[in-house]
Design a protein that fits this description.
Blueprint (H helix, E strand, L loop, with lengths): L3 H12 L3 H8 L3 H15 L4 E2 L5 E2 L1 H23 L10 E7 L1 H5 L2 H12 L1 E7 L6 H5 L5 E4 L8 E15 L1 H7 L14 E3 L6 H8 L8 E3 L3 H9 L5 E4 L4 H6 L3 E2 L6 E10 L3 H14 L8
Parallel strand pairs: 3-4, 3-5, 7-8
Antiparallel strand pairs: 1-2, 5-11, 6-9, 6-10, 6-11
Helix pairs in contact: 1-2, 1-3, 1-4, 2-3, 4-12, 6-12
Length: 296
Amino acid sequence: MFDYKLLSALAAVIEQAGFERAAQVLGLSQSAISQRIKLLEARVGQPVLVRANPPSPTDVGRRLLNHVQQVRLLERDLQSQVPALDEEGMPERLRIALNADSLATWWAAAAGEFCADQQVLLDLVVEDQEVGLKRMRAGEVAACLCGSERPVAGARSLLLGAMRYRALASPAFMARYFPSGFDAGRLSRTPALVFGPDDFLQHRYLASLGIEDGFLHHLCPSSEGFLRMTEAGLGWGLVPELQVRDQLASGRLVEISADKPIDVPLYWHHWRNGGQLLGQLTEHLRLTAGQWLVPL
């Protein structure tokens, strides 16, 4: 039999990125959390955590975390059927990984009404759409938005649509680097903006123009900061169309090359045995995401 106090300690250490914050969340001392982790490791016969900063789960730790995530959601279903079991009456918390651009544009509008109606609290983990699935693989989240179609074992994926990105720059940037008009051959020698090391959108855009070599770029791991740096003329970048309608209409930003968008598919991944709440959120997103995402 599982001892869920021990599993809760493991989940808290991973979710809170350390023993100290895990202890605060669970209302325990840090030494008590440490003792629970040691007892769990003694029972499974191997480490469940890599003691790093922040701690990360071992392979067996990931499997235990996956189990905890699904049990939490299934327990909510049971509590709705047997209200006496819900001693605290606290809203459910869903831990979800999603990309920064979705968070900055359509996610709040899509999920807001659902969370209010279902009394759900969100614990959001921001990851690039190219790598968000690693959080599910690690057992850290119940669902994620990412660019990969293939789900991890025990999960399903659903195509919600695509985010449309446009390659944009300020008029001043275009005047400085392309005074005679856009020249694709010069693009790799002008500064670009890249969200982070896992962001390959700019690489894809340059490849579509026949440019395969490296290019100059700033790194800016903030969706809002990315847009502000583009407006300030520090570089050109691929920005979600949803985020820049006003800037395009007013002329504060312009496309560097006429009408060459890139559509990035977004797949919703969720556990098969995630309970009614996760199933309801999945259906809600299936029905509403098309208001903001383009079809593929």
